[in-house]
Every structure is written in structure tokens, then in C-alpha cells.
Amino acid sequence: MLEIRDLTVAYGDLVALRQVSLSLSEGEMLGVVGPNGSGKSTLIRAITRVVRPRSGAIRLDGRDATRLSQRELAQRVAVVPQNPYLPDAFTALEVALMGRTPHLGLLQSEGRADLAAVRRALEQTDTWHLATRRAGELSGGERQRVVVARALAQEAPILLLDEPTAHLDVGHQATVLDLVRRLCRESGADTRPRAVLAVVHDLTLAAQYCDRLVMLNDGRVAAEGKPYEVLSPEILASVYGTRVWVFPHPLTGRPVVTPMSETFRPAPTKSGW
Amino acid sequence: MKVPARASFDRPPLPAVAEAGASVSDGVLPRRALWPRLALGLAVLVGAILLAAAVGPAGIPADAVARIILSRLPPAGGLAGGLPQSWQDIVWEVRLPRVVMAGLVGATLAFSGATYQAVFRNPLADPYLIGVAAGASLGATVVIVSPLRYTFGGLSLVPLAAFAGALSAVVLAYGLARVGRTVPTVTLILAGVAISSVATSATSFLILADSQRMLPALTWLLGGFNLSGWGKLWWVLPYVLPAAAVILLHGRILNVLQLDEEQAQQLGVNVERVKLLLLGAASLATAAAVSVSGIIGFVGLIVPHAVRMLWGPDYRQLLPMSMVLGATFLILADLLARTVNTPGEIPVGIITAFCGAPFFLYLLRLRQRAVF
């Protein structure tokens, strides 16, 4: 559904992405991981044309994304930005209704169908009870879920998430990630995201929920593949510059990553990893 | 191995809330509440117009004023019968053009101020932020202090020069702030402030250098409506009406722009185009208004905030309500300006600041919660 080839993005002299290629297919949840400053957020900003790539191609369903208007792009790609600013005086419902923007013309205002879509999204993210609360009165996690609801209300086939769980407690981390994973796999209604690209900082979390991971380092794709392929101790050591423990989750077998403290080094004979 | 059920995966269904479209939506979607507010605001505006046209050196009863105004509308031609011709002339030829002009300028400053605040996402923005006032002042002052005659056949060059000065300042600020294909708002504010201070110091120099023309120049700078006639209205309307229409159409988009430019863009708004369109419209309307009225401070800053504090931040109702309230406010301020110090007049800008600021502070104390 989304195909990126040889994407290079620079802010002035600072090159943020170098020749990045990746693809996202229908029903897939792709995780983008990597250290701070590796270009993960820039990738999302380039796909949504907030920054203009220096070179490379972005194709949506086979069409050149640069040919689409901003509005057509927003009908196809919804974003949950990292730490989104919300104006204090607007209510959660008003913020979520803004997700309908790409579907409304200049002379239109939100109708019953828009409200129904927004209500469904707020219910899915467990925020419908906050509808009349002002954004200034919401906690960080509540704001984040309202913004996820806004992106779902946008009803775009591709959903891009930039650190969607950064401010969430473990319960709501599971709610949000399970929700988007379930939505992109379900068959049926074309109002749901059909593919998800999520920038996730927490490697363990990324490994549990994503079908495939792309590891960025210094603007380049350092590794790509199944979670256990990408999250090997060798790759992690070279990319993050620190030694970590990786062991299989007792139930799912997916990799769990924890940093290795300098004070508690295991005896060499016992280190199986 | 059996996977234990994880409580967080399947949360119990949320408590049923009333059907969408009923309780919550009616309370939260502010558009539905616009019409009663607008009707109330328009009623108050009509009252202010009647009052302002009735009060003056020759007192004319408000009902007579209403009849005189209605008699000018084709279907009600006979209503003014029996009223002295002098009353009709005073109301229709002297007071009403002035009242309408004050209302028009008040509405323009208010909706332009709201637009500037929205696009810059800055509660301190007013329509003069990026150079309109300073440019207009410089243009007007150059003409006023110039040794040339600045009236030709009764037509003053001052508004024309003020208009040209205002637009030059804004275009210059825009040009200087341009970075590649975008005009970052912070850069635009800085460019506007820099150009404003250059123009202001040039204006001050011109005024101080010519003590004879000091008074007319200062009087213009402080703003007023003391030479209004119906003719001047035609100078303002061609700019203000299209600008108002364009801006009113973008109420919902302005709400989205309150998020921030990146989010607005990701929601499908062509941010650079909308910014250019709306700031252009607001600046053009303000330049036209300022060119006939001089610099009237405070209206564009406080009226949108007053509306926000009273009725919330939704620009779809904030813009029309600002227009109505701005018109009412400036009509009443102008009424004071020409009556408190009779037979003289004081510049209306002094009244707007003197009355506006305390009212604003009162509103600020009244509502402590977030309004912007």
C-alpha cells in the first residue's frame, strides 16, 4: 500500500534520512525502531509532506504521493504525531472532529455521519466519556488517546503512529496497540486503517505487536525483518552502542529486550546470549 | 502452553451514552448555538446604531431616527412624513454615515484581529502586528507633512497614502519572512515588528520635524470618524466585504490550524496557502479600514478575546460574533468620542483604550479557565 524508495531528506545541511527504502503491505503492522535522532519521525513527516524529500519516491497504492493534494493525502494517510499540541480551550470531541477535515468541503460542516465516525473512534480508544472535557483538562495519556481517536476518525487506509504509547500506562498501551493491530487485520469496512506504520521507542513493545521491524540508524536502514531477526544482541549493540539482554518472551517467543546494567554483569560462563 | 486472558485486551463495553446527535453533540457542537447569539448581537447592534444616530447637539428621538432610516428603504417610503427636514438631513447625511463607518471599521478590526490571532496562534496578535498600522501611519504622515497640497477637488490623498503604506509594509514583511516556499509565522512576526519600528520611527521624525503639521498628523494617528460621509464607505466596502466572506468561510479550517501547522497539514489543510489567503484578506481589509479611520487601537485585540471568553473558541461563531461586537463597540466608543467633550471631539482611539482595557480585565477575572 505504501512504498518508499531511496528516500533522502535533509534539514539544511543535516541529512536526516539517507536512501531509505521500505514497503508496507495490506494488513501489516510495521514497526520502525532506532535510537534518538535516527530519522524515525522524519520518515513520518516526509510521508505526510510536512518536509519535502531531497530525492526518492513515495508511492501510495501505486500512485506518486507528490501528485496528490494535501487533502487527498490526508484521506489516505492519518497520523498520530509525537507529543501533539492541543489547544486548551477545545473539547476532546471538537479535537476528534477535526479528524473529519479531509472529508469536508469549505462550505460543509460536520454532519451526523461525521459525528458517528468520531463517536466510534472515541469509544474505541476509551475516551468517549471525555468528549465534553477541554483538552487543557486532560492528562497526557488521555490527550494521546484522543489524538489516536482523531486519526481513526480520519478513516484513512494507512495509519502512521509516532510514539503512540509514550504517555500511556501499560493498560492503555495494550488497548491502543491491540486496537490498531486488530483494525488493520480485520476484513470488512473500508473505514478502518488497513496498514499501520508505528514508530515505537520501546523495543520489547515493538516486538510484541509488530509483524515486521525496520531499524533505522543515522538515517539509514540498519536492519529489517521479523522482530527476532532485527532485535539480535549484535545488531542492538552496534546500533545503540550498549549491551542489552534479549530473551524470548515465555508465552509468545517474541524477543524481550532489557539493558544490561554495568553493575550486574553475569558470569561469563552463564551468558547464553 | 495456555495463554492467560489479559484483562486489558477486552475491556468491558463503555457505558451507553445518549445517541449521537442528542445530548452530547448538542452541548458540544457550538454551531447550533450561533443563531440565537447572532440574533441577540444584531439586536444590540441595531440598538447602538439608533442610539448613536439619535444623540448629538440636536437631540432626535430614537423612534424618529428609526423612521428616517426605514423611510430610505424603498417599501417604507412614507414613514418619515411629518418629521422636520433638518432632522432627516442630520440623521441621514451626517450621523448615519459616521455610525455605519464606525461599525464597519469596528467589525473589520475585530474579525481581522481574530484572524491574526488564529493564524499566528498568538493571543497577543492584533491586526496591526505585521505592519499595517505603522505602514499606514507613515503613508498618511508623509502626505500630511508634505509641502504639497494634499487635497484635490475635496478628495484627500491621506487615505490613499495610508492604504499604500499599510499594504507596502505587509508585503515587505511577507517578503522578508519568506524561507523557500514557506513563510514561518515566527519569522513573519519578527519581520513585521522590525518593519513597524522602522516605519514608526520615520513617522515620529516627520512629525517632530514639522511643528506646524504636528497636530493634524497626531490627530490622524489617534484615529477618528470626524469627516465621514457616505462616499467614504465605497472606498472601504470593496475590500472589506470579500475579505470578510473569505475569512468567514474558513472558520472550521482556522479551528484546525489551532492545533499547529504540522497537525493541520496532516489533517489535509494546505497550510501555506490558507495562511497567505487569510492574512492577505485580513491585512487588506484592515488597510482599507485604517486608511479612513486612522489607527484605532485595542478593538482588534480585545473584541475577539471578549467573544472567546463569553462563547468559546470555535472560530465559526467567534468570527461573526466578533464582527457584531466590534461594530457595536466602536459605534458606542465613537458616540462617546464626540459627546464627552462637546463641542470638541476626542480621538476615538483614546476612548477604545480607556474603556476597552477595564472591560477586558473584568472579563479576564470573570472567567479564569482556558479560553484560547
How do the strands line up in the largest sheet of chain B?
1-2
CATH architecture title of chain A: 3-Layer(aba) Sandwich
| Assembly state of the chains shown | heterodimer
The proportion of residues in beta strands of chain B is under 5%
Beta-strand fraction estimate of chain A? 25-35%
Fourth-tier CATH superfamily name of chain B:
ABC transporter involved in vitamin B12 uptake, BtuC
The radius of gyration computed from the alpha-carbon positions of chain B, rounded to a whole number of angstroms, is: 24 Å
Question: What is the mean pLDDT of chain B?
Answer: 84
Instruction: Kindly identify the CATH topology of chain B.
Output: ABC transporter involved in vitamin B12 uptake, BtuC
Mean pLDDT value of chain A? 89
Low-confidence stretches of chain A: none
How would you summarize what this structure contains?
The complex is a heterodimer of chains A (273) and B (372). By secondary structure, chain A is an alpha/beta fold.
